[in-house]
Amino acid sequence: MATSTGQPRTLPSTALEFFDESVRRNASAIFTKYFETEMTYGEMDVRSTALAARLRSRGVAAGDRVGIYLQNTPAWCAIALAVWKLGAIVVPVNPMYKVPEVMKIVDDAGLVALFGHPELLDDEMATALQDHGVSSLVSCDPWAPGAEVLGLGFEPFHPQVADIENLADLWAPGDEEFERSPIDGESIAALIYTSGTTGPPKGSMSSHGALSFNTATYRDWMNLDGDDVVLCVAPLFHITGLVGGFLIAALLGSPLVLTYRFDPEMILDVIESTQASFTIASITAFTALMHSPGAAQSDLSSLRTIYSGGAPIMPSTLEGFHSTFGHYIHNIYGLTETNSPTHAVPLGAAAPVDPDTGAISVGQCIFETSMRVIDDTGQELPIGAVGEISVRGPQLFSGYWNKPQETAGVMIDGWFSTGDIGYVDEAGWCYVIDRKKDQINVSGYKVWPREVEDVLTSHPAVLEAAVVGVPDEYRGESVKAFVSLRSGQVIDEASLIEFCKASMAAYKYPRSIEIVSEIPKTATGKILRRALRS
Q: Is residue 59 left, alpha or beta, with left meaning phi > 0 and alpha meaning psi from -120 to 50?
């Protein structure tokens, strides 16, 4: 077992507390930088309070779940703060999700409201939301100059939704009085959905205390302070963007730089123009920056601290990034259920490389966190032995929303079973070398084979489908599918890929499909994924 004995400095118990402290400390300090617009901490406080009051007047109450179906804009932060001032729960929704994926979350979380960009609220989405009971409020983010910069056109509001309103009207300061609903460290702050192998996705319950702990870990482990400028490359709907972007900036009282969504050329320009000093993103994003046409001419000297998590890093990528920009990328490891990190490479240290597999260490246990490696029976294995990584610490989730059996399956005596295979060495360095599950990791996004297989087998020409992850130099892994066809049916790879693209997020659909006569299986009918991978 490996354990960290250190602890972060004094930390507040909720995200609202450290945002409030930053407002008290300097309300005129810039909180969000978004293209040509800026908002101070004081302005964000006033607007989020006004929004909270309007939401309460429309029936949103403590404990209710409110969806945020937006790209990285200041509105995301304002809505989250307003929801927490109400004592309600934020439910981030990936803006790449299509209607069926969104409705799974709507139904499971029991959303009472959803905030979305106009281009996401088309006729199909609006009708589905109303059919699924989200008719009390659907509000659009009007503050999106980034969308215009990226050439996105906005459709008009859709009348199918009963009470659609503009966020600009809802967050305009008014004369109404507002009293916050009480919350503490054990209160649930967010439901962050993870994909399940079967059935609906699982909502990981993030408490205010767990989010606060790991936000303070970012501050102290990475030696960040109020002079830093935080560039939020990771999406805010992801645990990394939430903690390593929005919340760490709020804790520090620092500027949070938002760019709608990731575009490598734009990010290079933004780093220079804002003098960003800290960022965390998947290795795919850093690879894109390294291979961007403007890389050689870019000055990234302001970046003092860079971390990457969510996908494996190859040593050649670290070397290439250092050669191009002069910066070392520190590894970090965590899951949605651990509210970002359980392990990280100490600032200024270089992660060792496993000589047998070539895997770069994901780091050492962060503050007050322990890890052990267990076998299939749950018994702890000795140092150096390979098995499933299990972790324990204050940052762990509070369980899966309304899924006690699934929670019990991964939480055993206070330890969370990650499903990742690895080992820890004598010096406490952790190595992740495989996955116990069949999960595919595409640019830090998690894809389950069953979800893609279900879409493929819904096509009338497809008899069976099997999906695996294959190495991808850019994405870490990409999705590959094998399909067998029904008797007499003929279809090509391109048509099947287009079929998948229409039903799922861009990172999920297979990049290649191989049509085979038969899917290999075991004697009991289980798909032999190992045979397909080889």
A: left
